[in-house]
Amino acid sequence: MKSTLAAVIFLTLSTLAVFGQPAADEALVKKAKAIHERVITLDTHDDIDVSNFTTAVNYTQRLNTQVNLPKMEEGGLDVAWFIVYTGQGELTPDGYAKAYANADAKFNAIHRLCKEIAPGKIELALTSADVRRIVKSGKKVAMIGVENGYPIGTDISRVKEFYDRGARYLSLAHNGHSQLADSNTGERDNVWLHNGLSPLGREVIKELNKWGIMIDLSHPSKAANIEAIKLSKAPVIASHSSARALNDVSRNLDDEQLELIKANKGVVQAVAFKSYVNTKKNEAYSAKVNEIVKAVAAEEGFAVIERAAMRDLSAEERQAYFKKYTEITAKAKPRIEKEVNPVAPPVNVADFVDHIDYLVKKIGIDHVGISSDFDGGGGVEGWNDASETFNVTLELVRRGYTEAQISKLWSGNLLRALDEVQAVAKKIQAGKL
Q: Is the distance from CB of 51 to CB of 86 less than 8 angstroms?
């Protein structure tokens, strides 16, 4: 199942101490490796860029993306949920049309990968049975999640369309209030559009239940999430959120929401996103890293610009900027490791697993999973791309989790929730619920 994993294990012994953990002994690594090879590893949130799904440039190549087939092979990641993400725009017919076109392109890209580009290496799964069958065949698994229901517009029939195209979870909002639900970003100014879900959003909840699409709570507001949980006849998920009790940011879930998700039989997929895992630690590290990167850039005659200024760049200018910026950061890496890591270490796998520990203690081992938000800002030291996936299992083994528990965390809980959501859908369609 994970044939290339052995080739990278030797790195683990020498590199783990770099991100703040004691170097693992060979027996621990051997035990973790065996578990990692046996369980199905599933990451519920990996963003995509359609430009990486062409004949010339695609995921069969070891691109600089955090997720692609070679990196999945190297790290032993079996299942990647590729994301049909749409940024929030205006709630107008034109805005909805543009959002739908964006979603359409991403659906098409994922299908192109599985059907045309690499059908012998990866296959789209629609059920948990599909996942197990595909993994057993030796291929990687693609699944589809929709981040932001904005592309639905006001056409509720698109819920069924997205289901037919492979979507198996959907969030009703992202950063900014949608026509369906308020976003967590409303906490910044306490300005809300719906005070939870909109009337259309409530109808979409019913449609999601009817067709067997999991409701994702990772970006909507707390009020919207509580309302969604109460309305849903099936388990819900948070596809990429961590514990607010450990890091108080609006993208994490507080204990009240966690308890409601547990009662709903849902699952929270802890996310390895640095600023959600430990904001204070990440800010201290980032500040010192930025100083060094800017110094190296100045030596190269390159000006580092603020994120907001990137909006003014053309697509070509942005691509050229990121290419050069990547070169600069690569040159700065030795100085960062020498000058920054010892005094302001980066957020790492251990910090991430702290959130898993908290969630397991708060809501139980049956309601917790794992996600990265790779290629969407995610990644921590030790799990910066799919090739390092084994390090998460190693840290879980180090903390005493059993193979059965690790199997639940990596995929068992999420697939169980999907099964239950699809079972509810069948009852609704049959008029039995």
A: no
Residue 143 belongs to a domain with what CATH number? 3.20.20.140
State which residues form the domain around 250: 5-278+347-429
pLDDT tens figures, 117-150: 999 999 999 999 999 999 999 999 999 999 999 9
Amino acid sitting at position 242? S
Beta carbons within 10 angstroms of residue 207's beta carbon: 19
- Report DSSP state, residue 377: T
* Integer Cα distance of 89 and 100 in angstroms: 11
Say if residue 267 is in the same domain as residue 317. Answer: no
7 pLDDT more than 60: no
* 347-400 confidence digits (pLDDT tens): 999 999 999 999 999 999 999 999 999 999 999 999 999 999 999 999 999 999
* Over residues 44-65, mean pLDDT: 97
Residue 71 makes CB contacts below 8 A (sequence gap 6+) with: 62, 65, 77, 385, 386, 387
Residues 115 and 244 in one domain: yes
Cα(414)–Cα(417) distance, rounded to whole angstroms? 5
178 and 326 assigned to the same domain: no
